[in-house]
Write a structure and sequence with these properties.
2 domains; four-stranded parallel sheet; alpha/beta; 292 residues
Length: 292
């Protein structure tokens, strides 16, 4: 039997993940009372059980006793019952925004503020994050990206290192992304904006890509950037980092930064072991500004 305990922060996507696992053939139970966990494990772990893949959603709803969960997990370890913990997380500001959008109360906030409930929850389930087999930060994930990551782990059986990388292009005139871990400035490269036939195109167009990467500086920069990122990623993984945002900026975030971000994304996407996504934050802002 493959037993997956799905847990993490409220609002990080646990219910969505359980639905996806159900589509992948898992028998799913959401909001399982912790005292029932040993009985469930015993039933499904029986030799004659026809259920081979089980996902149990456990979180702070209903005032769960997480001290009891620690004891249950320790007991399963002692009995050498295999299990995996999928921990879904997100930045506090993202969680607060999601609660405001859905107009729901945090299960631990009572009549107080959402951020107070989030702080209490983090403290309460910190031990689960420490024991987690997989940690997915959904702060920047689209639903389809979450499904893709779950399929890699629970269907394809790929190795997973708890790191999700966002490669982002941006324009300096619109500000540096606040959540960027690494920021690279490519404004030293020749600007396609001043080439009439390229001005209205973007770094997603082959003509702009050829112009930017046809320059020796562009090719050398990409090689050196790849060398640096290839060195940093394994070290970030060793330090337990689970979210990395690499931001590449030019003046308007439309040509040079988009081209280099796409090129780096293609390199990272070919490496197994971590998730990667591409985001062009400001690619359409120049056109919007002109219309105004």
């Amino acid at each position: 039997m493959r037993l997956v305990i799905v847990t993490g922060m409220s609002g990080a996507g646990k219910s969505t993940a359980l639905k996806m696992l159900e589509d992948m053939g898992y028998f799913c139970v959401d909001n399982l009372p912790i005292p029932l966990l040993p009985g469930f494990v015993e039933i499904f772990n029986a030799p004659d059980s026809s259920v081979k893949k089980v996902a149990l959603g456990i979180d702070v709803r209903g005032g769960q006793d997480f001290g009891g969960l620690q004891e249950n997990l320790d007991d399963m370890d002692a009995k050498k019952i295999p299990y995996e913990i999928l921990f879904l997380d997100a930045h506090d500001d993202v969680l607060i925004k999601r609660y405001k959008e859905t107009r729901r109360q945090h299960p631990l906030s009572g009549s107080g503020r959402v951020d107070t409930g989030i702080a209490k929850e983090r403290e309460k389930i910190a031990f689960l994050k420490m024991r987690a087999t997989y940690i997915l930060d959904t702060s920047k994930m689209l639903t389809r990206e979450l499904r893709l990551e779950l399929e890699k782990i629970f269907v394809d059986g790929q190795d997973f290192c708890n790191l999700y990388i966002t490669v982002m292009s941006f324009g300096f005139k619109y500000g540096i992304p606040q959540d960027a871990d690494l920021v690279f400035d490519v404004r030293f490269l020749p600007n396609p904006y001043y080439i009439q036939e390229l001005k209205e195109k973007t770094g997603n167009d082959p003509e702009v890509q050829d112009y930017v990467m046809g320059n020796d500086k562009g090719r050398i920069f990409l090689e050196k950037l790849n060398d640096m990122v290839s060195f940093l990623i394994p070290n970030y993984i060793l330090e337990g980092k689970n979210q990395l945002v690499i931001a590449i900026g030019c003046t308007g975030g439309k040509h040079r930064s988009v081209t280099l971000a796409n090129a780096l994304y293609q390199i990272l996407e070919s490496v197994e072991g971590y998730g990667v996504r591409i985001e062009h934050r400001d690619i359409g802002k120049d056109a919007i500004t002109k219309r105004r």
